[in-house]
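Let us work through a complete example step by step.
Step 1: write down the sequence.
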Amino acid sequence: MSQTIDTQSLMMQMRALASEAASKSAQPAEQATGTKSAENFADLLSQSVNAVAEQQNKASELKDAFERGDKVDLTEVMIQAQKASLSFQAMTQVRNKLVEAYKDIKNMPI
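Step 2: predict the structure and record it as tokens.
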């Protein structure tokens, strides 16, 4: 039951992020170009990597606490481990797409 709720929560977060991204892309083109957008992209990428690292650290701390015998619920440990794993897989896919896009742009004739 908690997995269903967790999945629904994840879907709601994804929809909120998608609508936020759509509203930001609706800004005028002059605001979305130039150095500012590059900095925003770099900041966004950095924040995303930090969020994934934070999730992995939290999952690791919960796992260690459970192994020590602290009062930690096993289901919470497993859910956090799955969240960290899923976040890392998504980040890896984004990285792969960015590398692929870079290679495509690099190989374009001038």
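Step 3: interpret the result. Helices lie at 2-25, 29-32, 35-68, 74-106.
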